[in-house]
Amino acid sequence: MPLSDWQLLPPDLDPQRLPNHVAVIMDGNGRWAQQRGFPRMMGHRRGVRTLKALVRCCQDWGIPSLTVYAFSTENWQRPLEEVNFLMQLFEQMLWQELAVMHQQGVHLQFIGDNSSLPPSLQAIMDYARQTTAGNRSFYLNVALNYGSRQEIVRACQAMGRQIQGGQLNPDEITENSFAQHLDTAAIADPDLLIRTSGELRLSNFLLWQLAYAEIYSTPILWPDFDRVEFYRALLAYQRRDRRFGRLSSS
Ligand code: IPE
Ligand code: IPE
Ligand code: MG
Fold first, then answer.
1. How does it assemble (predicted)?
2. Number of domains, the chain
């Protein structure tokens, strides 16, 4: 199929059965660069390009919501040089892309604990969130300094404080009310999780929210993940039988 044809949803995908929400662990930037003899940072730069292209693709193909793992709470353990580079890259990307994303109707949200991010990055994140708050055509959620266990602990702390203050009865806590205390309170659970670079682990990503997501892993490294690879992931997704514990989905 010529590349121009990938603008439209490939005909063998059923538009009625696309995932509403795709989550992605964007992994393999470092290896992509190292394989080419480049510094790891080059891989991260190419990774940003891939993300921009995927946002466009989701919009073209009619997938309304995307959550991407950009930096984990564990990623602080990397060399300071790489951590600093990534923080600057996130900031630069937001400054550069905000106007275009806003124009495209992207609603930007962030999940994770932003309080320990550099103040200048927090400022542009707040600005981006506020600027795009009214957009409804596409939802991009970026997990930045995100760790699912930490998120769950923060939710428990918030509920504990409500119990202590007499506003919450422990017996009335439900799955739904608990989920409302997570960073993803306003976001439906992902239908499909894609992890690039061949790893078969969650790395502390959306442990609660992925309870019934379909998982797709590909050996493709994140900078090489293109529309064809996304099509393959969606095709695999549409072949799954999502039973949710029942005997059959039909
Ligand atoms: C994913 O790529 C991006 C971040 C974690 C920020 P990696 O940097 O983990 O790349 P690999 O896994 O080392 O190849
Ligand atoms: C997960 O990738 C985090 C992001 C993609 C941001 P890692 O590369 O940090 O995960 P591990 O260390 O291989 O589990
Ligand atoms: Mg990695």
1. Homodimer.
2. 1
